[in-house]
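User: I'm writing a short report section on ligand binding and want a predicted complex to refer to. Could you take this sequence and 1,3-dihydroxyacetonephosphate and write out the structure as tokens? A short remark afterwards would be nice.
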Amino acid sequence: MTPELLNELNDIAVRMVAPGKGILAADESTGTIKKRFDSIGLESTEDNRRDYRELLFRTESAMKENISGVILFDETIRQKAEDGTPLVDLITAAGSIPGIKVDMGAKDYAFHPGEKVTEGLTGLRERLEEYHQLGARFAKWRAVIDIGRGGDRSIPSYSCLRANMHALARYAALCQEQRIVPIVEPEVLMDGDHDIDRCYEVTEMGLKLLYEELYDAKVALEGTILKPNMVIAGKKSDRQASTDEIAEKTVRCFRNAVPAAVPGIVFLSGGQSEVQATENLNTMNKAYADIMPWKLSFSYGRALQASALESWGGKKENVPAAQAAFAHRARMNGLAQQGAWTPEMENDA
Ligand code: 13P
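Assistant: Sure. The structure tokens for the complex follow:
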């Protein structure tokens, strides 16, 4: 890689984790956004999807102050607002960076019941070239790692971890070749009944393999962003960990596995509640800022949008209320990114 390309990628990555800022994951696939709209009793039409994304991207305070970048779905990066302005232009006008989800989803891993491997490498170079022309400066690829139920230690298998991390590395190298910063997302799911220590073990092993694969693929870490799960107990575990334990174990795990050259780590929310996701991020930044070589921020989907979606309910007259809800969550997470959030702030309108 030339020094110029490395600088270009590093500048983008550093902007993605600027102080007080993080990423809005608005890249729900057609199937996932349908599920979200079902929850408010709204039909998932192209216009409804456009209206919803438009209301988010037109929330000026959030987009200018707290959202450094937005991950889009293929449909959205090509869509125009009601008045004809490309949605991408709304994002860049606010000083935020457009990004794009490029994986084609997690598919069953042959002969490994219960495990998945993410696909989408075929034709990826050409797709990235087009996405760059459409304005994307970063991309996302999500690998999904499940943890076996009832103490079943055969899931995840070494083979499944290796296959997913290898695909992530091939994706990341192609992104960098096309002047796009790869967000590498190895998500260890919080479904299941495992405790926090099992999540630690699987997360650490996944990250060790990921950085080995990225090294072999000649990916420049200064031009990447990591999007991981927090180290946290499964939703069905009877031993739920406190925010202090989550923060301590997450930071310890990453210090052991994520090289210092990585500019930023942005968490997914993965099913945590909005306030939980904010509180956990805040605790890490408050207690451990001095010992972390990377910026720690957010790339939340549900934890930035849940209240906004509910307030909107698919009705035009609710747009201001939905925008206020989104702005509030963006501000709370912006504060958590700096370890400056307190629970009392949740009551500020
Ligand atoms: P959640 O924050 O809702 O987990 O979504 C983030 C994301 O982009 C998952 O790939």
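A remark for your report: The chain has one domain: 3-347. Residues 185 and 227 are 5 Å apart (CA to CA).
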